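I have a small job for you when you get a moment. Can you supply me with one protein entry, sequence and fold together? It will help me judge whether the discrete encoding reads sensibly. Write everything out right here, beneath this request:
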Amino acid sequence: MSTVVMNKKDEVIMKLVHYFVTEENYNPIVVNGVKDEIWLENQDGPYRIVRINSNNIFNKEQLKYDYFKIESIVKQIKKKTFSFNVNTLNILLDVNEDLELKPTKHIKPVALEDDSLNITNEGILEAFPDINEKLLKDTNGIDLIINVTKDINEKTEKENKVYERTFKPKKIIITNLLITMCVIMFIICCCFDGLDALNAITNYTALRLGANFAPLLRAGQLWRLVAYMFLHASLIHLLVNMYSLYILGSSIENFLGRWKFIIIYLVSGICGGLLSAATGSNTISVGASGAIFGLAGALLYFGYHYRTYLGEAIKRQIIPVIIINLIIGYLVAGIDNFGHIGGLIGGILCTMALGIDGKSKTFEKINGMICLLAFVGILVYIIMFK
């Protein structure tokens, strides 16, 4: 029978990787052009990046180059993941003890003896106080390889199931139902106003069918906060909003699920209607655009949590589309931009309160719910008592 022999440095590396991956939810990331280094990432960890370097660093020039290499790679990570601050724990396993390891703004270097099984370095213990308790101790050689591989594979399999459940294409139902309801309501408007509704429905018809109007909200007709988002002022208004709803709605319904999607849609529309009524007491507003901006906010929040995969989409598509549409709302007369802004804020806060499967923590959901209730409460107070 053959025996697997591992040197102490390799054992320490495997045990560190096992701890960071299975206990601290770090994930290995592929970094091209490096050797004898392991890079781990956790967007919510005490350090965004943990880098384990087993290369020999003997003098100041090598140490300086090591810092430069980290900065270069971190810059790429920041660009890819739409991040501003990527703090890095740089664990060095083979460094001259005479060298002074000075931390920089984003890099915390720590030296670790390659035969250490009990970590005493304050830089590590401060961020990971339980590391000594949870490091594999009595496992070595082939048993270490088997245990580490098994545990990491189990964790990866669990994360892959969440990822697959989130991104697997699903049948889109609620989005199509909402589009159908908006089309039906526009046909009803045409029954009242005739073909003139194709260009613009009358204020009388809009108010009769549920347009958002602050004086009527104060009179107790709160149902308008839901009804108005199914009405549209013209055929062009309907077509533009339904196209946007189809694109954004399909994505959010697929990523977050039907129940979360419909809650986000309705809450965003209500928030848009409230901010519109709070900022323009004589404004009659109709349309799904507030709710649609809420879906854009939900996609932005979702994309932030999956920014490793969607970072470029956030920078090049989601944010530019939101900004451009808000600018158009200010430049073009007749667009209720406060409704858009209210919907956007409502969508972000509602998604935060509902959470992203496998990503959101309980305190984030609680904070989201508190902020959403506070936002709605302030708007209701302004409408009722201003």
Notes: The first strand starts at residue 27 and ends at 28.
